[in-house]
Amino acid sequence: MKWQQLPLGSLQTNCYIVENPDRSCLIFDPGGEAKKLISLLQSRSLKPLAILLTHAHFDHIGAVEEIRETYHIPVYVHKQEEKWLLDPALNGSQFFSVIEPIKVNPADQLIQNEGKMKIADFTMTVFHTPGHSPGSVSYYFENEGVVIAGDALFQGSIGRTDLPGGNQSMLLKSIHDKLLTLPEETYVLPGHGGVTTIAAEMDSNPFLNGFL
């Protein structure tokens, strides 16, 4: 399995493409610039199977509809944010004058429980990691030592919690209980910025050192 980071949209949100040797792939958080993403997929002859969202803030969902319509694939989001896709007030897009309000049709699959998830030959573990938003989830690929953490944990920082539904103490608990229990060599693929590891954040993240 291989993965690729592709910053997209007005906030350069990290979209991740996870692929298998047979060229099938999963798309995580297509935040915008759908044509750029489609061009990359076509240039590499990739075959998307699904769109998975770490959460439903506007900068993570801007290209969802065009990608779904192009490839006729399902969209996954946590149940607590199923209404966010359709509501610019909830997903935050109505508060940014530089973008059009974003409305996405309902998700095809609602994530309701933590645990193993299998899509074709892809197997991952879903962790509910609320705090940045109520329905934030992280996707852990154990065999590959990679966790796609959305806006929960960043290199040297954590997700903001001043948006609707945000809660810093809940976020810190999510990080501590769900992410920092992973093997220290696990790569953390965040929603913004560079890739880091669990070990690096345990050692030097100023938001976590006082919590451990």
In a few lines, what is going on in this structure?
Helices cover 23% and strands 30% of the residues.
Question: Could you characterize the architecture of this molecule?
Answer:
The protein is of the alpha/beta class and 212 residues long. The protein has a single domain (2-209), classed as 4-Layer Sandwich (Metallo-beta-lactamase, Chain A), CATH 3.60.15. Helices cover 23% and strands 30% of the residues. The chain is built from seven helices and 14 strands. The strands form three sheets. It has a six-stranded mixed beta sheet with strand order 1-2-3-4-5-6, with helices on one face. It has a six-stranded mixed beta sheet with strand order 7-8-9-10-13-14. The chain has a two-stranded antiparallel sheet with strand order 11-12. The longest helix has 12 residues, at 168-179. The termini are far apart.
Break the fold down into its secondary structure elements and pairings:
Blueprint: E1 2-8, E2 13-19, E3 24-28, H1 34-43, E4 47-52, H2 58-61, H3 64-71, E5 75-78, H4 88-91, E6 109-111, E7 115-119, E8 122-128, E9 137-141, E10 146-150, E11 153-154, E12 157-158, H5 168-179, E13 187-190, E14 196-197, H6 198-204, H7 206-209
Parallel strand pairs: 3-4, 4-5, 5-6, 10-13
Antiparallel strand pairs: 1-2, 2-3, 7-8, 8-9, 9-10, 11-12, 13-14
